[in-house]
Amino acid sequence: MSQAVLAKETNRRQLQQIISGLSDGVILAEADQTILWANEAALLMHGVDKVEDLGANTKEYAARFALRYRNNHPLVLENYPLSRVADGEEFSDVVVEVTPTGDEEKVWVHRLRSLVLDDASGEPELLVLILSDATEWASAEQRFEKTFNANPAPAVICRLSDLRYIKVNQGFLEMTGYNRDQVIGHSVYELDVLEQAENKDLAVKRLGEGATIPQMQAELKLPEGGSKLVIVAGQPLDMNEEDCMLFSFTDLEPRRKAETALRQSEERFAKSFRLTPVPTLVCNAANRQVVDINEAFMTITGYTSEELIGKSIEDIDFIDSPQACTQLFTTLQKAGNLDGLDLKIRKKGNELIDCVLSADTVSIQDVPCYLLVLMNITERKRSELELVAAIEEVMQDASWFSQTLIEKLANAKSVNSPNVPNISFTDLTARERDVLGLICEGLADKEIASRLKLAPNTVRNHVATVYSKLGVHSRSAAIVWARERGLFAGELRVKKPK
Prior knowledge:
The chain is of the alpha+beta class. The protein has 4 domains: 3-134, Beta-Lactamase, CATH 3.30.450.20; 151-251, PAS domain (Beta-Lactamase, 2-Layer Sandwich); 276-376, Beta-Lactamase (2-Layer Sandwich), CATH 3.30.450; 380-484, Winged helix-like DNA-binding domain superfamily/Winged helix DNA-binding domain (Arc Repressor Mutant, subunit A, Orthogonal Bundle). It is built from 19 helices and 16 strands. A 6-stranded antiparallel β-sheet has the order 2-1-6-5-4-3. A hairpin with a 4-residue loop joins β7 and β8. α17 packs across α18 (456-470). The longest helix is centred in the middle third of the chain and has 23 residues, at 253-275.
């Protein structure tokens, strides 16, 4: 279409009709900034119905509409778009926030570009502002900005054209100790987020292509020196029509410290396990397979580690009683620990030894295990049993027992009789209690009969009944039974005559 055709009045009207139907807003003004005309879209973007509501010129427009740049700086009259066009400035992408005077709740965002129409002599005849409604775009950008800043996950955004950081969130600043000025405007070469990345070549290649960078471990240098172990990933995105890369991070330093602490703890446990003189076995809690044994365990049982590791406790059969073995693991499953279980251990070669077993639940490399600790009490138990047997055999009459000897005997019996019959003193009759008390004083049957004014046969029957109820077979055992329960200690019990 020739310039001559466009200059015709009829075609100008047709052109005006076309402009009126555009979705973009159009404002026409004289060279002196007098506003002549605006299409429907431009009026709608200002919330008015007719061109007069925009104001007669730039000064009146400024009185009715306050403009701000996106950095929140308000525009003075000289910087209003019409003023800039009148001064001969050309622009193609100016974004401003427009707020009606007196109604600050309403905010529109306009993206503007300028156009100057010259007359036949080449002098400016009309000033044109072309407006696009960027309110939704700005709202989305604002939401992104808020989300980005509020996201606790550390993140930075770099512009791909020059590889400089344009945004950083609080999470990244807190994780690294950098301040905002140490990040914004700096390049990825100055602050290398891919430092010592496990696949850095791939990451650099993807960054150059503007493609997704997969997750990988990296060492992030800190401003105060040192580094932090992180997982870094990159996601391309469009920011203000510019290609950018969003780097997000996961702080692995707490995990590294925890792993270090765990490793050190396991090393200390392993050393203690090896060096302790107490026989110790570790087995898997789920299948009861032996995980490890120490030197003391091998010494006491005669087994080597190769003979036991990987086999189940039941297969080894080193616990003599199946019932005791079942009781052990049932208790561990319910309570998690056990203290002082008497049982017999079968050595290699079938020799039995008396042991006291304690156990606890431990976690080894995140696997629940049982720690079994043994104490060999064979010699001690044999000595104590021999002592008690000798006393009971030789000392048929307990009348001359000293208080000290009786209490020592009670202690010996207590160690070797963990399963005492569940009989209390109150289960005895009053007469039986009297008889037991006099037995503990060391009186013989005849002396008891005399003290209680009973026939000797009656006393013997009472003594037999007391033995039966207590589960003992001798005077000394009855005395020990009473002393174990703190009965008749410290004073004589004398039955007064009726």
